[in-house]
Amino acid sequence: MAEEQLKELREQLDEINSELLALLSQRADIVERIGQIKHTRGMTAFDPEREKQQLDRLAAENPGPFDDGTIRHLFKQIFQASLGLQEERRGLLVSRSRTGTDTVVTVRGMDIGGGKPFVVGGPCSVETPDQMEKVGKELQAQGILLMRGGAFKPRTSPYDFQGLGEPGLQLLKQTGQKYGMAVVSEIVSPNDVEMALQYVDMIQVGARNMQNFELLKAVGATRIPILLKRGLSATIEELIYAAEYIASRGNEKIVLCERGIRTYEKATRNTLDISAVPILKQETHLPVLVDVTHSTGRKDIMIPVAKAALAVGADGVMVEVHPEPSVALSDAKQQLNFAEFAAFMHALRESGLIPRLEPVS
Ligand code: PEP
Ligand code: MN
After folding, report:
1. What superfamily does domain 102-351 belong to in CATH?
2. Stated pTM of the model
3. What would the pLDDT profile of 229-239 be if each residue is shown by its tens digit?
């Protein structure tokens, strides 16, 4: 008899467990919906005031036999699990899990990340009209559709050339227009973002500014494509969070750029973290470029390194080109001259890693 009663009571317990479980899942659903609202409103997940209210109410309603402390403890566990749910499941806007498809960032009609790898080229710094005229012509001849050129240069020494500023952007824009190329340039201050929109098709956030959060917010508030470079000592996770800063302000036109990180190795200017490319492609839905100039700092290995970058899945490579690198006002040692650039483009096209040059009709 007792045996049967025990069995029956246990069955009742099993049923109550199932009901509790169903209620917990139902509660979790609501928690997630609250989490989404909090996220869109920019509210933090944890709300201690609200948690206290709930615990006080439960203690007041407690019919026993558990004492209030036990009830508070049990529900605190449920609250904590719920908080975890809000934080984890929320997912980053830039994360791959949010969308199954690759984001294609279109810069003046040119698609980045659409399966057609490309080269972005141009001088380290915009220097003179003559330099830009020569470089524009050469880049066009090589079929380049996106030209780079720095007008605000974040230099290690304050005594080095700091860039031409706004007139440099003007010159870059004029050259781009003349030779049918979109242009990208680095902006280092949130105050210059608005001004830059008149001149550039894409704003670069450089390595030294990857965690300049005010700048990230400022470019996030625009709708212009952003080229976000990995910081000198930034982890992949930090780069992803930097991109999230931009996306969280509503601008998802982000292209990531691996440009080498600081290690003890001295043979190259930085150490190119080639594995960052497939990791970023796997973890995010954003296009990824590799800057072969700043990562290697060596012209002699740029072709194999660019091939490796494309082979590992990069959507494009960035390379610095100057009519006369030896007299360049920045990065004189590592910019390619026109002959070297032509050889670089030829090698990449021959490898099949970027499309062949279509004959100009
Ligand atoms: C640049 O691309 O001009 C530049 C300064 O690169 P980085 O920010 O990667 O050093
Ligand atoms: Mn440079």
Report:
1. Aldolase class I (3.20.20.70)
2. 0.80
3. 999 999 999 99
